[in-house]
């Protein structure tokens, strides 16, 4: 059990947790990798000064683990006095964990303390909590950086009356589809997932299930099929970048999934990653699910989201948490200043509904354009443009 209490429950992350390990004994690094390498993305430094320089000039990690005998307490003093690192999670390790050391780490605003061999306590669970806390902070910053989204009376009135009538009218269809889904494949009828809507409000969105129950696990192996993926620019040989290939060995070592790789190659891959995920001929989709998607019937349960006020008929599509967190920068945050919606501007443009020539940047720009200009007249125009776009010509 960890020594310092946490105030928020942990949340499992589908992606490796980014950790800096400050350690000068190679056998400790090897043992650490053997125990945690598959779940953590690890960068190792021999001393705290190197670590500070790296953190100052690079996107911060999810946590830093540093030994007490490597100046861990002094490191805490330094990192908490800098505005750009004061909230960075720091874990202290020690050969012996005493009550006095625990008290000292708490006073220095350390996040936790573990024995050097991690023989007690669940490190991964604690790190998952840090990731969840970071997302919570990002959410609060997003709310601070934007005006509260106020839904006009005319918009809410239209949402409630239209969806209430639609639910009553379509109830026989909803029942038939529910039965067919149950007969077609194992799993729940309705798929629920966390989404971020107007003003960065997080809620559960409803859709008829169109995918296999293991879809979330399969997505990690499908990055190359993503329609928004950018082209690779960095050539590599045996896992090395061009620069390291010239000298025959890696000059910027990084540990990821328990294996050593070149940091430059990894960073280039990271730059190529995109916020949105969409696939052609997605193998995760069931036979019935493909029909439901192509006809947009899978979206019908979102009528209940609209009726309850989670979103609107017209607006920017609410995003999954992992996508929304990437769009909290000054350039993109404005897309959350508009109402969330079942259909919106980017879906009904000539390149809408996820076609190949709709880039990620264009999609974000259309979302921002709607957030700035939405009105009754604008919504009415998008509403009538939606019907021709309902039947898709591509399996996306």
UniProtKB/TrEMBL annotation:
InterPro entries assigned: Bact_transf, CheY-like_superfamily, Sig_transdc_resp-reg_receiver
Keyword Membrane: yes
Record's protein name: Sugar transferase
Membrane-spanning parts: 160-181
Presence of keyword rRNA processing: no
Taxonomy, superkingdom: Bacteria
Family in the record: Belongs to the bacterial sugar transferase family.
Residue stretches making up the Response regulatory domain: 18-131
Example of a GO MF term: transferase activity
Record keywords: Membrane, Transferase, Transmembrane, Transmembrane helix
Cross-referenced PANTHER family: COLANIC BIOSYNTHESIS UDP-GLUCOSE LIPID CARRIER TRANSFERASE, UNDECAPRENYL-PHOSPHATE N-ACETYLGALACTOSAMINYL 1-PHOSPHATE TRANSFERASE-RELATED
């Amino acid at each position: 059990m960890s020594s310092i209490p946490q105030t928020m429950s942990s949340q499992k992350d589908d992606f490796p947790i980014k950790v800096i390990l400050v350690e000068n004994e190679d056998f400790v690094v090897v043992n650490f990798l053997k125990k945690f390498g598959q779940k953590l993305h690890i960068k190792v430094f021999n001393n705290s000064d190197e670590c500070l320089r790296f953190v100052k000039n690079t996107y911060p990690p999810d946590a830093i683990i540093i030994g007490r005998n490597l100046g861990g307490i002094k490191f805490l003093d330094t990192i908490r006095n800098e505005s750009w690192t004061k909230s960075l999670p720091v874990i202290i390790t020690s050969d012996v964990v005493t009550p006095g050391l625990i008290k000292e780490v708490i006073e220095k605003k350390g996040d936790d303390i573990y024995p050097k061999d991690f023989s007690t306590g669940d490190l991964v669970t604690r790190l998952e909590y840090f990731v969840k806390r970071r997302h919570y902070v990002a959410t609060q910053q997003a709310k601070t950086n934007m005006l509260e989204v106020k839904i006009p009376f005319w918009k809410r009135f239209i949402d409630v009356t239209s969806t209430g009538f639609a639910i009553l009218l379509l109830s026989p269809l909803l029942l038939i589809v529910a039965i067919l889904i149950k007969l077609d494949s194992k799993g729940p009828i309705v798929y629920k997932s966390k989404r971020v809507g107007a003003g960065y409000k997080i809620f559960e969105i409803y859709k008829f299930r169109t995918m296999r129950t293991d879809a979330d696990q399969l997505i990690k192996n499908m990055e190359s099929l993503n329609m928004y993926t950018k082209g690779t620019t960095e050539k590599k040989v045996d896992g090395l970048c061009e620069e390291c290939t010239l000298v025959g060995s890696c000059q910027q070592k990084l540990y990821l999934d328990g294996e050593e790789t070149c940091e430059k190659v990894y960073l280039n891959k990271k730059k190529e990653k995109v916020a949105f995920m969409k696939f052609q001929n997605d193998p995760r989709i069931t036979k019935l699910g493909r029909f439901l998607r192509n006809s947009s019937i899978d979206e019908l349960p979102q009528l209940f989201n609209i009726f309850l006020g989670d979103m609107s008929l017209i607006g920017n599509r609410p995003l999954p948490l992992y996508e929304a967190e990437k769009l909290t920068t000054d350039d993109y945050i404005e897309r959350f200043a508009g109402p969330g919606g079942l259909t919106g501007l980017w879906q009904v443009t000539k390149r809408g509904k996820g076609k190949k020539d709709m880039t990620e940047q264009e999609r974000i720009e259309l979302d921002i354009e709607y957030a700035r200009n939405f009105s009754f007249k604008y919504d009415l125009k998008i509403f009538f443009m939606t019907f021709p776009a309902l039947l898709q010509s591509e399996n996306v």
